[in-house]
Each structure stands twice: as structure tokens, then as C-alpha cells.
Design brief:
This protein has 120 residues and is α/β, with parallel strands linked by helices. Helices cover 48% and strands 22% of the residues. The protein has one domain: Rossmann fold (3-Layer(aba) Sandwich), CATH 3.40.50.2300. The chain binds magnesium ion (MG). Magnesium ion binds next to loops.
Length: 120
């Protein structure tokens, strides 16, 4: 069981993620709608793992990823984004994201990626 922070500006994406993760026995400990909230919540909650969107208002997922890694170099962040943002996905992995998930994703893909990163 992992304590998970969900970050996406779209509510329905987080609803899908929440349902899949809770059904697999994980716990959602926070829910942010932009990078700024993600950074604040990360520092406050110290989740085991973060599922992070890239394209969001205020502070985007790449910037939030970098800030979180500055605060906690061991942070486990999985980036979720559309393949049309291929460059940003590549950038995210280069910046320290542990994995990425391409939207639209299946429940199986989400859970297997999360479990893989947790085992690292
Ligand atoms: Mg978005």
C-alpha cells in the first residue's frame, strides 16, 4: 500500500486514477490541480509517490517535478501526459521522473507502472 499524491488540472483524470489506485489497495493522501499546489502538498504530506500531469495552469508538471526533487532528491514522481507532449515526457525523465505514463492509459498500465516504481 502506497500513499499517493494525484496532480492533474482535470478532475475526471484524477477520478479515474483514484478509483484504479484505491481498488488496488493504495491510499490517495492528496489531490492537486496545478504544480504550485503539488509542491506545497508534497512538502506537507510527503507522499510515497506522485502521479503528475504536465500541462497545467500556474506551475506546470515539469517545473513542479524539479522543485519537488530539489526538496526531496529521492521523490518518486511518475509523469502522465499525452504522447503529443513527447518532448516534455523526455524532458521529465531526464529531469528525474522515475517513469511516465502516456494518456489515455489503462488501469493495468497505471497500476503496473506505479508498482514498478515503488519496488525500485
Ligand atoms: Mg493537464
Amino acid at each position: 500500500m502506497a500513499r499517493v499524491l494525484l496532480v492533474d488540472d482535470l478532475k475526471f483524470i484524477k477520478q479515474i486514477e483514484r478509483k484504479a489506485l484505491e481498488e488496488s489497495g493504495h491510499q490517495i493522501v492528496g489531490d492537486a490541480k496545478n504544480g504550485l499546489e503539488a509542491i506545497q502538498l508534497y512538502m506537507e504530506i510527503k507522499p510515497d509517490i506522485v502521479l503528475m500531469d504536465i500541462t497545467m495552469p500556474e506551475v506546470n508538471g515539469l517545473e513542479a517535478l524539479k522543485k519537488i526533487l530539489t526538496f526531496d532528491p529521492d521523490a518518486k514522481v511518475i509523469i502522465c501526459s499525452a504522447l503529443s507532449h513527447e518532448k516534455a515526457l523526455y524532458q521529465a525523465v531526464k529531469s528525474g521522473a522515475k517513469e511516465y505514463i502516456v494518456k489515455p492509459f489503462t488501469t493495468e498500465r497505471l497500476i503496473s507502472t506505479l508498482n514498478k516504481v515503488l519496488e525500485q
